[in-house]
Each structure stands twice: as structure tokens, then as C-alpha cells.
Design goal:
Number of helices: 6
Structural class: mainly beta
Radius of gyration: 25 Å
Number of domains: 2
Shape: flat
Helix content: 10-25%
């Protein structure tokens, strides 16, 4: 048929170029995810760093496809397929990129700059209990739940970060730890390792080797014990989800301030019950940890 012969556009976008995903439902609910200098955040319905599960979602975006062409997106067809009032609108924000055209012998023949842009999908009526009619680029297609359903089932609570100290140490610049009235500041620097012959040290793959230097309240300390202590902090993980996401009013048991290459983060632990402490990341509480896990913070 004519519909079967109609070309299907490629929508399997490169995950590394996706800068944001916004979902708006007819009910008024919204989900927004955004990449801020390499760190993914849930932006709506609450603001919170996203976990590694975000990468799974991006990889699904890299594999998604439209099923079959249905019709042109004129007013009559929009009403026919429930797209005049879509139940969900999904916008994918793409970063600027460069497209290279290669010759048969793998030489760059042409390069074209692609500015940052947005791609929008509108979802209407369901069909055959396996998907929805989808408006894309003024054309109506079938979109199956198997391929694109993940866009309509994003769960911010599940995406919320459960390991608050997930910033790699090689990105760190400064850490401050506040216990009651006592504050300890750590400054972290990385410098190229210089060999006795004044050459820069490299590993077996040719990558530059860096040495870490740490100062505690202005005095230099051994880097290796500090590194082990930070790795212990990175293993701290939530024990459960809070029923309320408001900040506790009690004084914090412990507060850690992080400054890293692309931003800052404040992680505070507040009394929750006899065995647990609530975790607040930048003032928002989503999870709690056992009090015993605070022993992992030894710096």
C-alpha cells in the first residue's frame, strides 16, 4: 500500500547529544530531565541529581524507532487519531554537533554544523493495545510501546540519585565537612607527573599521568589515605525512599560541601528516626540512610 511504501524517518538519536527530555501530559503533570555540564538532573516535578539509570534511558532513545506511516498530519487526521488533543507531548533537546561526510577511503569530504535544536513527538489514541498514534514532523505514525513507551513511563522517583557522593575524585576541587560546629576543608589539586629527565610521565596507552595533592585546612596531607576515605564515601547509598520530600528542620548531623569541575553540591544528613538519617541534596530530601552508614564519612 501507499502507507507501507512511505519512508520512515530515523529517530535513533545519538545518546551523547541528548541534552534534555521534557514530557508534558494532558493532565498537567510534567517530567523534565536536563544535562547540566555533564551531570544529569531530574528538573521536574522536583530538582534532584539523576542516577546511572539515566544512561539506560538515553540508550533507549538511541534505539527507538517509529513503526509505520499512517497519514499526513492535517486537521482531519489529527482528530481521527486523537492528536488534536494529545495525551502526552515529548520534547527531546539536542546539543549542537558536527556532521561529517566521509569518502569511501574514510577521509572527511564535508563537515556541517548542526545547531542545538528540539525534536517533538505528540502521542494520541492507542492502537491494538501495543502503542499510540504519534505525530512527528507533521506526519502521523504508529509508535509501539516496545520501542518508544519508555518516554511515557519515566519515573522521576526511580531516577533520583541514591549515591550522593557519585562525583569522581579526579573532578573534585574542594570538599568541606561540617560536624556540629567543627568544619574541615580539603583542597584537591592534580598536577602532571614530571620525570627526572623533565619529561611528562605517561601510561602504557600514552595518557598523561597526574598526581593528586591534598591540603586539609591549609596543610598538605598524604593523598592516598584521603583517596581511600573518599572512595568509602562514594559507596554510601540510600536505604529507602522518604515519604515526604521537604527539608527537615532539625540541625544537620553532618553536612558535606562539594565543589567540582562542573558545579557544586551540598549533602546534609538530618535526624529521621532512631536508626536512620534523611539525606538532603541541595536542600531536597528524597531518601534516608542508616545511621551506621555515616561512619563511611571519615574525612
Amino acid at each position: 500500500t501507499k502507507e507501507e511504501l512511505h519512508p520512515i524517518p530515523d529517530i535513533n538519536y545519538t545518546p551523547d547529544l541528548i541534552d534534555g527530555i521534557d514530557v508534558r501530559y494532558a493532565s498537567g503533570d510534567e517530567v523534565s530531565l536536563t544535562n547540566e555540564q555533564g551531570i544529569w538532573y531530574v528538573k521536574k516535578p522536583f530538582r534532584y541529581p539523576a542516577s546511572g539509570l539515566m544512561q539506560d534511558l538515553l540508550e533507549k532513545a538511541g534505539r527507538m524507532r517509529l513503526s509505520t506511516y499512517v497519514a499526513e498530519g492535517n486537521e482531519k487526521n489529527l482528530r481521527l487519531y486523537g492528536l488534536h488533543k494529545p495525551f502526552a507531548v515529548v520534547t527531546i533537546r539536542m546539543a549542537a554537533s558536527i556532521i561529517s561526510v566521509m569518502t569511501p577511503d574514510h577521509q572527511v569530504a564535508e563537515q556541517r554544523d548542526v545547531p542545538e535544536h528540539e525534536i517533538t513527538f505528540y502521542f494520541g489514541d492507542a492502537f491494538a493495545s501495543v502503542g499510540y498514534y504519534c505525530l512527528f514532523d507533521d506526519m502521523i505514525y504508529k509508535a509501539t510501546m516496545l520501542s518508544m513507551g519508555f518516554l511515557l513511563n519515566i519515573e522521576p522517583d526511580i531516577l533520583a540519585l541514591q549515591t550522593p557522593f557519585d562525583i569522581p575524585l579526579n573532578k573534585m576541587q574542594w570538599i568541606a565537612v561540617m560536624r556540629e560546629e567543627q568544619r574541615t576543608d580539603y583542597y584537591v589539586e592534580f598536577a602532571e607527573r614530571v620525570l627526572p629527565n623533565n619529561l611528562i610521565a605517561v601510561d602504557d596507552s600514552g595518557n598523561t599521568i597526574y598526581d593528586m595533592y591534598v591540603k586539609r585546612n591549609g596543610d598538605e596531607i598524604l593523598a592516598e589515605p584521603f583517596m581511600r576515605a573518599y572512595l568509602d564515601m562514594m559507596s554510601l547509598s540510600s536505604s529507602g525512599e522518604m515519604t515526604e520530600n521537604s527539608l527537615q528542620t532539625d540541625a544537620a548531623l553532618l553536612t558535606v560541601f562539594l565543589k567540582y569541575d562542573s558545579g557544586e553540591r551540598t549533602i546534609a544528613f538530618y535526624p529521621y528516626d532512631a536508626l536512620h538519617a534523611a539525606i538532603a541534596i541541595d536542600g531536597v530530601v528524597r531518601h534516608y540512610v542508616t545511621l551506621s552508614q555515616l561512619d563511611l564519612i571519615t574525612i
